[in-house]
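Moderator note: this is an archived Q&A kept for reference. The question asked for a predicted structure of one protein chain; the sequence and the answer are reproduced below.
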Amino acid sequence: MISNTTKAHIALFSANAIYGANYIIAKGIMPNKINPTAMVLIRLGVSALLFWLIKFLFVKEKVIPKDFIRLAACAVFGASLNQLVFFYGISLTSPIDASIIMTFTPVIVLIFSFFILKESITKNKILGISIGGIGAIALVVYGNKALGTSSFLGNLLVFLNACTYGLYLVLAKPLMKKYHPITVISWIFLFGFIYVLPFGFNTVITTNFEAFTPTNYLQIIYVIFFSTFLSYLFNVYALNHVSPSVNSSYVYFQPAVSFIIVSIYAYVSMDSQYAQDISLIKILSCFLVVIGVYLVSKQKKVPV
């Protein structure tokens, strides 16, 4: 019989494999087939319905009125603004660049935790922030000169997404301790949908869905069901059986998945732009970010 810990690792592996593939799948449909704002609104709306269905069936829990202010703030940084800059960013840049930059999120979380939650930062973590920061910033700047599908603006938007998502994780931390994760995420996605609705409604109704191929519909289903709903449930399950540090360590897997999928796609489709997305600078930047995140996430051993 498979243990809960093993199941948790399988869930984490699956979630991060889904995330890794999401970069190129999401890019494949935007902006040529659908506007990023429309994609965000559809994603938030459908995901909110799915999470509220789970909450209605399994999680009978009410939120204290004063906590709605924090939930509303979390929705800005975790479900609306961050998704808008991410989808616009991925539509403009390389899936590889985006996956590498997003691994910088644990470093962002540490920085915001220091300023907001007053958590201490060790010399080891400062070193990690510095090394990882060099890798992430170098990749953003390199996007302006790189060949392939990279771009400075796209990389910058993805970096802003990592920053806003990192802030969301810090703001949501007290709520996650107080309420069931499904309760928190249900409200966040609902608020996020309300925020984006005024900006995305017209883009959705003017989208030419008749021009969509079956592949395009599969791409949308993947972005909504797999990379949002299912991957979140995988992470929630895993957090009940393994430590947060183990959970965050799986973020290293995403660039590897992205590298592999982009390589396969470039070979199969003979797309020269995607073939140029893999370069020594990106590999070195990825290495620096991974080392930085490792130093930040490394737990100090407690003497027995």
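Archived answer notes: The chain has a mean pLDDT of 85.
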